[in-house]
Each structure stands twice: as C-alpha cells, then as structure tokens.
Amino acid sequence: MRTRRGLAAATATVAVVLGAPAPTASAESDPPANADAAVVVEDGAYPYSDEVLAATGAQLINGDGNITHTSCSGPYQVMVWARNLQTHESRICFKARDTGFLSVNIPRAYRIETVDRDVRAGITIAGQTQTLDIPEDTSKGFGEAHPTDPKQAVLLELKVTGSSGPRGAGQPLDTAGLAFNAKLNTGANGTRACSGALVDPQWVLTAKSCFADKPAESDTVEAGEPKQKTTVTVGKSLLLTTGGHTTDIVQLVPHKDRDLVMARLAKPAAGITPVAVAGAAPATGQQLTVAGFGRTRTEWVPAERHHAAFTTGTVAATGFDLAPKDPAGATVCKGDAGGPALRTEGGRHTLVGVITRSGQAGCLASTGTRTGAFGTRVDDVRDWVQQTRALAGGWKTEALVQGGTKLYQAIRLADGTWTGASDVEARAGSIGGVKASAVAGINSDTHVLAIGGDGKLHHTIRRTDGSWSAFGDVGSVAGALPDLTQVSAVSIGSDLHVIAVSNGKPHHAVRRGDGTWAPFGDVTAVAGAMNGVTSVATASAGNQLQVTVVSGGKGYHTLRTTAGHWSAWGNVAGAAGATGPIESVAMAGTGNDAHLVVATDNGTRQYHAMRKGDGTWEGFAALDEVLGKVVATSLGAGAVDGELQLALTTADNRVLHTVRRADRTWASTVQAPVAGLPGSLGTVSLAGTL
Questions:
Q1: Arithmetic mean of pLDDT, 458-463
Q2: N or C: more exposed end of the chain, with fewer CB within 10 A?
C-alpha cells in the first residue's frame, strides 16, 4: 500500500495491513503465526469512547465513522448544548461528512446547531422517543429549552441527512489499478464495515466474518439474502468524490470451510475491471500488495483507500502470514477484513488471498501488541468462485464433455473464463456411465440428455441455483427406444426438442414447458427413409426445429415447422457444396439462420455453412485459418447471445473453442481449460443459458 493520510491532525501514515518484519520460511508443519489473530471487521465502536466520556461527559457509542468529535474552537458541522457536559459553555462539537450516523448518550441536551448539514436527531423526553430535523445553518431548542413545556431530554443519535457543503469532483485517475477494491457497509446505519474485491461485474469476494452475527466467535453465515442491509462501493479510491458504483448486496454465497463469501451486487458494476483470481499460492518471501478501507493509525474510517507492500510468511493449506515491507508505515486494522492480497503477474494484479485477521498493533484505539496479519487463500478455490459467478444472470455457455465413460459439465462465462468440469453423474445420479450426450438451455436451466451404460436415455436439469435434479428415464415417459447410439437436443421457447438415434434411425420427442413429454416418433415416417445414422445435430432457427444427420458419410437436412410439419430430407452437399466424407456434425441457430459445422476426412478437415432464414444456403467454407491444423473427434455448437460458439475435441485430447461473432468474424481459437479428464475425450456439446 501507499502511505495513507491521517485523520484530525493530518499525520502521514500508511495503508491497510500489518506491522512486523517478514518472517522467514517455516517448516510446513508450523501453522501461520497469525491464523488465530483477531478478525478485522469494523464493528463501529467509537474509538477512545471512555476517554471522551471522562473529558466531556458525553458517551459516544458507535457510528459509521462519518460523524466524529472535534474541538468547538475549529470548524465543525454540528454543535450540541447539554447541561451535564463538562466542557466550555456546556457544548460539544462534531465534524460530519456528507452522510453520517453516530449513536450517543448525552443527558440533558437542549439545543443543536448545524453548519452546512441537514441533521436528524433522536431524543427521548419522559421516556418517549422523538426525532428532530434541524436544517443546515440553523439551530433548534428542545427539552429544557422548550418555551412552554421544558423537560429533560437525552440525545441518542445524530444523522446527517443532507449537505450543501463542498463535495469532491469526479473520481481521479486510478493510477494504482485498484478500482476493483470494494468498501462494504452493513446495518441500517452502516456501522459494520469491511473491504473486498470485485471478481465479476456482479460479485464481490470478501471475508465471511463480515456478515457473521458475532465475527469474533464464529464466521458462520447463511446463504441467501444478507440479514442486514449491506451496500458496496467500487471504482473509486476517494469515497467522498462522485463516480464509482454503489449498490446493495442481495445474495451471499459463503464458502463452507473458509472465511470467504461471494456477495452479489443488485446492479452490476459496469466499466470497472474485476480482478482475476490467481492460479497458484503465494510463495514464502514473495511481495504482495494489500489494499483496503479500514482504520489507520490515526483515522477511524478513512475516506481514502490505502495500499502497501507486504511480504508473505508461512504459507499453509488455507492461508498465509503477511508482514509489511515497511513495518513503521503499514498496519492491518478493523475494516480491512475482506481486503485483497494481490500478486503482480504480467503487469496486472491477481488475487491470491483475502485479509481476514491481524494483531492490530498500532491501529487506532487498538490495545493489540501483536504485529502481523493473516490472509485466507483463494487460489485453490477458483472453481468455487467461478461456479458462484455462474449463479448470476447473464449469458453463459454450457458445455458437456465426455472423458472415457464419464460425463462432465463446465461453464464458459461471458468474460471468456471457465469453471472447472463437474462430474454429472456425481450430481444427478449414476446411469452406469455415458455413451453419448447432449445439452440445451432453457432460460437459466441446463437440460442434459445422456445415453447411459444401461442403454437407456436419461434426462436431468441443472437448475439456476446450481443444484441438479436426479436423472430420469426418458423412455418411461416418452417411449423406450432400443439400440440408442446418438442424441441431440435444442430448446424452442420453453420446449425441449430431442432427436435420438435408435437402430440407426432418428426419432423425435418433445419435453413441454410444463414437464410433460410428447412421445418419440420416427422421423423417417414423416421426412423419408434414413438409415445408418452415425451423427446427428439440431438447431432452432426462426422457431423451427432443424435437424442434420450423417449417413454413409453424407449430410442430410430436414426441418419441422412451427405447425409440426416435416420437410423431406435434403442432401446438404447439393445445397452447400461437396466435402470429403463427413465424420461428425454440429448445428446452432442464430435468429432465423442455422449454422452447420462438419468435420470430414477422418476429422482432418472442418467446414462451416449456413442455411439462411429464406431457405437459401451459404456454402461450406474451410475453417483451417480459424481452427488450425487439428484432427477433430467431435463437434459441438451453440447459440449464445446471438453468436455461434463452436467447440471440438481433438485426437490429441484437447477441447478447443472459438466464437463466430455477429459481424461474421471469428475469434481466436483457444484451448478450453478442462484438462485432466479421465480417458480419451469423446463427444462435446454446447448450449447457451441466461
């Protein structure tokens, strides 16, 4: 962190973390020294309240740090008169920012004066609680100052409700590149505070203890809506300036056994680049940057973010020690909980940990004597972060990949990052392994069809919240089919259309939006004879079901109209041009157009064609310049946010991915990070969900 400004006296001090020399590397069996230090959640307790009470007779209890005691001889925004005060002329003064809250206990208060601030005061008179509004630059008497009914009053709280005072201009350039650093305030008056890191436009990663009932005793937090109103601000280092992004937290996803929680924003933070989660743990002796909005040596609630350099000490399975590079200038204090610990990789910050504990030596109003801080690791829970990100709304690419006889599901998020691959049978129940599979998205649900080792066709749904339904036997509700070899599926509205190949022939069924099934029917009975089908693909284009099958190395196309009528099979080569023998096929519809991708010549060549909405075709074009020289063993295509996404498994056991954009250009082909699946990679399929 860089040096951070002090409070009242403008004393220079430094930012967010600890205070001891960097520890030397310890034996792996030695736990981090600071793992049991105090949690650093800002609880709102007024600093040095006992000293203030002794000096003034006013009890300052807690607040959000925006209303603080100051001398009445200097600038102030609120002045309170009370007969029991031990101060000059029985007055006590406060400085106040544009908003603020302070809980107090000032007996026999009788007048409040304001400067440049609208203030609402809570008082009790004869056991009855009242509120008083005092507009800026006015004063109001109450209690014993009442002209006709004087009674003793106790001042309970002060709130700043408006300000015409000067406010900072727009946010200056963030030269530190830390715009993702978040400030969180919890409670009706925002008295509990933490820091955090934006890891997705809709998600902040922070400490779970920030939301716990008693952070010092337990970090247990229930998933779902926060118990208390919580606001988050990102995108600015100076909190008193305009700009940035402020919104509520509407959902919490706590990690089961670490002091980590993902907090979803009510409104996404557009235009602010999230920080990437690192893929490896910090090493002992490595320099990290720690950032946050917590207390300093002299400030209760700083208006400015602070950051400083720290050195990693002992690294354990779940966390690591930290020490400031400049022990005299940096300390981790209350309010820094959830702040990011960052490593620089390729000139960019990556998140390796979240600050959760500190000895707090040198922090304002702290009696702690221990130096050092503790960060909870996040590098090894990247997939939990990614899976949580996938719970929010927005376009996602659902991918199914076979590894040996197992089936795995992964999600590509809108920013191009991927979740890890999850074993579908582990989530939805065993079906004796998987021989073939397909995926389709309906709203935010992912529908998976799989031909199991038992020879039956099964169906499951990955719901919006990430849970899975149990695999169900499609044959029991849509008619059993023998000798199943291939399956494809696509959504049209809320209906799921399924094409299954049985005895070499394609059959069609529909799972309606209400969950009931229309039974399988033999497509050859309505579209013409077709035997020996070795590959099948489906697409929705113009609300019509389009189907392409491969038989004898040739592609054939049919469609089912919105009225349920089928066209006769058409030879794809006759419409889109000849290719070598087709091994596999994939389809996806964007708007009224249906995209067709084929792999030919034992998978060594790949082509793209398109059947346009008017029934004409754009002919096959080679994809060598897009995909490179690869041998494709399976193709998968899906329509995601109006674009064609294409995936293929290769003979050298990779999954490649690319996008054909709406402007007809292709993105660079990249390897999807789903390495490590058992056995040879088999079929791949894609679908889009919201």
A1: 98
A2: C
